[in-house]
Amino acid sequence: MGRAPCCVKEGLRKGPWSTKEDLLLTNYINQYGEGQWRSLPKNAGLLRCGKSCRLRWVNYLKPGIKRGNFSEDEEDLIVRLHSLLGNRWSLIAGRLPGRTDNEIKNYWNTHLIKKLKSTGIEPKPHKNFTKKEKSRNKEGKTSNNEKFKGQIVQVEKIKVFAPKPIRISCGILRNNSFENVTLSTTTCSSNSNFEKVDVGKDKEKEVKLFPRELDFGELLEGDGFYDEFLMGESCKFSNKVEMNDNMVEKVYEEYLLLLTEIQEDQKEQNS
DNA sequence: AATTTGTCCAACCGCCCCATT
DNA sequence: CAATGGGGCGGTTGGACAAAT
Questions:
Q1: Most buried of A112, A156, A249, A269 (most Cβ within 10 A)?
Q2: Residue A230 included in any domain
Q3: Per-residue CB contacts under 7 A with strand C, chain A residues 54-93
Q4: According to the model, what pLDDT value does residue A9 have?
Q5: Domain presence at residue A97
Q6: What mean pLDDT is predicted for residues A87-106?
Q7: How many domains in chain A?
Q8: How many Å apart are A130 CA and B16 C1'?
Q9: Is the CB of A109 under 7 A from strand C?
Q10: What is the pLDDT at residue A124?
């Protein structure tokens, strides 16, 4: 017997959202905040599944969501982050201010794959190991996954440097202009997921950084740090980061820096 | 003008993780 | 320790629209 469904499907609406439904959802969340998605539809007077409400809010209604064409910088960043992270759209979205994982995923599938192919680049198909698979493959255990059945998956131990994960709340993007904030280092408790930095009237950003060298094998073996540093579940160091109009450029610079560090480290190891 | 084919993207589905009981 | 439920994620689908025939 499988799991009980997340909600009773009978009598619930599906398909495109009406303006009235959007309004009900927005008003409810503005008043009571996000969360409690299961009980939200009933409380808000919506005949929708809680998951559907969450998706509608996160991908469409949430303030600050950037819509429209992707800039070249954004495209470039997506391609590079995808080569690093694979189809982990939520992580990629976390580094593209105002863009949702769904939007990036769609954009990748409809535009970027074609674009890359037309320039002679074959995007790598990524097999994303789940944590379960990672732990299964650990210590040379055979995988139960059909695709990898009978194979012993060895995790190559190479060094990588953790890029600085930056999460930016949507608010700062409303007018696409950021105030400059000086860089400084602070610490925060593991309970506060992000340090919130007030940079203006209604603007707020959430930032965290991990200036830590990591072992790639450690990351893959699912000790949690990989996800932790990418997703920002907790923090050891938290920096205030300069915010300006060229946010994408800055993330890109950061990426280049990361690549340089990896190359230098590999040179050192080889010599 | 009518029909077919292709493209795009919002939304759904199923699975997973993790906290709680 | 196992069962349960909430929330989140990635893959996929289906309908609207555009372009081609």
A1: A112
A2: yes
A3: 54-55, 87-91
A4: 57
A5: yes
A6: 86
A7: 3
A8: 8
A9: yes
A10: 58
